[in-house]
Amino acid sequence: MPVNGTQVRMGLIIVVGAACLIAVLGFGIRSGFGLFLAPMSADLGWGREVFALAIAIQNLLWGFGQPVAGAIADKFGAGRVLTVGALLYALGIYIMAQASSPLELHMSAGILVGLGTAGASFSLAIAAVARMAPEHMRSMAMALVTASGSLGQFLMVPLGQAFLDEYGWSMALMLFSLLALLIIPLAFPLRGSGESAAMGPDQTLTAALQEAGSHSGYLYLTAGFFVCGFHVAFIQTHLPAYVTDMGLNATIGAWALALVGFFNIIGSLAAGYFGSRYTKKNLLSLIYLVRAVVIAAFILVPISATSVLVFSAAMGLLWLSTVPLTSGIVAQVFGPRYMATLFGIVFMSHQLGAFVGVWLGGRLYDQTGSYDMVWWVAVGLGVLASVIHLPINERPAARLAQTA
User: Fold this and answer.
1) How far apart are CA 139 and CA 324, in angstroms?
2) Using CA atoms, how far apart are residues 149 and 27, in angstroms rounded to an integer?
3) Chain mean position to CA 379
4) Where are the alpha helices (DSSP H) in 37-180?
5) At a CB cut-off of 8 Å and minimum separation 6, what does 333 contact?
6) At the N or C end, where does the chain have fewer CB atoms within 10 A?
7) Is residue 158 within 8 Å of residue 255, measured between CB atoms?
8) Sign of the alpha-carbon dihedral angle for 349, 351, 355, 356
9) Distance CA 131, CA 75 (A)
10) Which residues have C-beta within 8 Å of that of residue 368, sequence separation ≥ 6?
11) Are 129 and 142 in contact (CB under 8 A)?
12) What gap in Å lies between CA 301 and CA 114, rounded to an integer?
């Protein structure tokens, strides 16, 4: 039976809606893990490196698991992978709530949540949307999913702080575990492969990997996303503790992360809008440069509640605005057929950066009693990322150009 335009539009709306809600839950919940660093470390008598290493392992497993999850989703559909990922995600958070030793924390918050996040990732949701959305709508559709992750951060972080204040860290984590299970019914609309008529010429996965690996722009993009992961994970995990270290109330730290999420909604949507009109690589270069300036200003200005909230708002505009632009370049250059796999590899670099940022923050804090050195490393990496995006060639691969 032929499919008319109305059915296609309704299908796209349902897929985008489900993907957005998955991003709200999946990204929103893990955005609140930084709230648990100080209370868990204090209650259990651990240094901050123990918790930081658990989150670092989580980011690393998320990164290495993402290309595998993406390849499975490209072949069998995102819905199945999201369902399994949500189960692992919820189980890991539940066991994390019972952790009484560093090993239990690293196994639960690190390994289980890391693998679960790879399977229940908003990256898979973005890839499913990219395959279904027509090219002229793709950048904005991916931006909507990215912005939804930010909305999740805005909603879940204050909710997590409220759970902490009311019930303590163990019960708060168990409630987060229950919320993670809601991803399972939302995965149902994404159960198909999502292949569209505009997939482009037939290509094997091996050929796609070879094509991307020989493309210098893909390599630059992968290297640049390492810096994004370093920035995001370090700030997300350590900013609440940094705020309390500087004598401010813990609530300021929670609202700082929430503000990052709120302004990231604006930043992500703006990136989607401008990414469909201007050169994406130049926008990425600008974002990383401004990040470096904002971080430098934050650590040079005397800290106050106002400076923390202004910094959070500014970083929010620059937070995940890199995602629709980075994923957009991948889809634009190589086509949407193996989007989940190819973007998964780029995202693995992001998570390697996240591992280094989170772990290094905890390590240097325990050694020096300060985060200053890590802040300055973040500034230097921002400048480096700004430079390496400039040579990227955004033109579609020759294979797609010939077909067009």
Assistant:
1) 6
2) 5
3) 20
4) 37-44, 48-76, 78-98, 102-105, 113-119, 122-132, 135-167, 169-180
5) 215, 217, 218, 393, 394, 395, 396, 397
6) N
7) yes
8) positive
9) 13
10) none
11) yes
12) 35
Per-residue pLDDT of the chain (404 residues; tens, 9 = 90+): 445 567 667 777 888 889 999 999 988 898 888 889 888 988 888 888 888 889 889 988 988 888 888 888 878 888 889 999 999 999 999 999 999 899 999 999 999 999 999 998 877 887 788 777 777 777 778 778 878 887 887 888 889 989 999 999 999 999 999 999 999 999 988 876 444 434 455 678 888 889 988 999 999 999 999 999 999 989 988 998 899 889 888 889 888 988 888 898 899 889 888 988 889 999 999 999 999 999 999 999 999 999 999 999 999 999 888 988 998 899 888 887 788 789 889 988 998 998 899 889 988 988 998 999 999 999 999 999 999 999 999 888 877 765 55
Cα distances (Å, whole numbers) of residue 342 to 238, 349, 355: 30, 12, 20
Given the candidates 3.40.50.300, 3.50.7.10, 1.20.1250.20, 2.160.10.10, the CATH classification of the domain at 12-196+205-398 is 1.20.1250.20
CA 375 to chain centre: 20
Residue owning tokens 């920035």:
231
CA separation for the pair 255, 308 (Å, rounded): 9
Measured CA distances, 121 to 28, 196, 317, 363, 373 (Å) = 11, 21, 21, 27, 31
